[in-house]
Fold Serine/threonine protein phosphatase 2A regulatory subunit.
Amino acid sequence: MLQGRIPVEREIFPGAIFCLTKQRFPSVQHWGIATMIKQILSKLPRKSSKSDTLASAGSDSNNNTNLGSSIQCSNGLNVVRRMSSAVFPSMVAAGAEAVEPHLSFKDVPNTEKQKLFVSKLNLCCVVYHFNDPDKDQAEKDSKRQALIELVDFVASGSAKFSEAAIAATCKMCAINLFRDFPPKYRSNSTGGETEDEEPMFDPAWSHLQIVYDLLLRFVSYSSLDVKVAKKYVDHSFILRLLELFDSEDPRERDCLKTILHRIYGKFMVHRPFVRKAVSNIIYRFVFETERHNGIAELLEIFGSVISGFALPLKEEHKMFLSRALIPLHKPKSVGIYHQQLTYCVVQFIEKEPKLASVVIKGLLKYWPVTNSQKELMFLSELEEILEMTGVVEFQKIMVPLFRRIGCCLNSSHFQVAERAHFLWNNEHVLNHITQNRQVILPLVFPALERNTRNHWNQAVLNLTLNVRKMFCEMDEELVLACQGKLEEEDSKSSMAAEKRRLTWERLETAASFQPVGGGNISFLVNPATCSVTC
């Protein structure tokens, strides 16, 4: 019988008990343990070991903690190795020695390529600064070559994204991509790049471009296990990815646009979070900073996202329209992303036509007064929306809408006036006007009449005459009635103007009497009384 307890080391590997027992009690031969080891060894495949040391376990991607440690036993090392592999098979891969990362994938056997893939990912975690192009040039070239080899390996379809490979890929991409942009690259005068500004390019793009390509191929990989990958492509990862949309480099934003779209499509569990995070970016842009470089790219992503919304639309989606998309018409830099914004709005109306009146009310709320270029964009968007607007929704907003259009018809900016007249060339809009001419004509007729009298631009004058001719063909009696009413209003206006003129003359006459006085006494010469009626 063995005297005393077997030490705690027996919990490491059951096969290590024999070695530890012989070390602690060299004179004892325990027949039962020897028989058990012999039976187990007879069932294991016998392979020659290439190394004489048991490698330590691999590191976890998040905390890099060791999964195991080697057991030193001079008499039973091979026994311990085989027993640990049988009891913990995962330790065979995790504990394997790392492959030299500078080797090419062509120079290693297929069994070692996955290890080489992870080794190269770890090698590329070193970030170099490109402020000095000549500094560390050899190391930069070596890293770029390793990145290219990684992309080619994934593109070939040979990569197998185990959890260790997924963790290493996400870690490498995060270290290389996630960074804070220097304040000096920010524009102080506008909310992002303007059409006249030249874009700024990141000097590290030679590395960043390949990392983005690898990340895109990773999230698009057909055999990627989403359940495992979502632990690493998590909310924090997505938030940091969204922050990169504020980059000054349009090439980077274009890559991010494609990657975020693939993530949204593949990781369905993250879709609500992505929508909420993008909404928060828009809220901050509209109501706080009015500075962001990636609004156009984010809206381009959401254009395809909105087209995939199921019917009936959720209340969450309608709130995104009313609280995020419609207020995006407010910033001065709307011209940068107006095309993408219009597409998103049109997608909503195609899904649910009743939202047309909501959108038009929002346009009227944020309608520009002094910015003619912005007004032209609003008129173009308005025409596109009116083409999809039903009769009922049109009648809800036609009064405030055509009051605003009447102001545009009279605009001194000839392009705005022309664009407003072009609405009558749209068949769908013209049908709405014809059906509701009793309401619409009295609203726009004064503007048309004022144009015929004194608009400075001949092209606008010709368009006004054409629109008036259309109304005469629709309903001549209504045109004559509107003209008579306008003449009556003009007469009343002239009488009121004359009355105001006479009143001001009497006031000026009363004010012309100057006080005359000597010492402390003053009085008016020729005091006059006048009754002033306004």
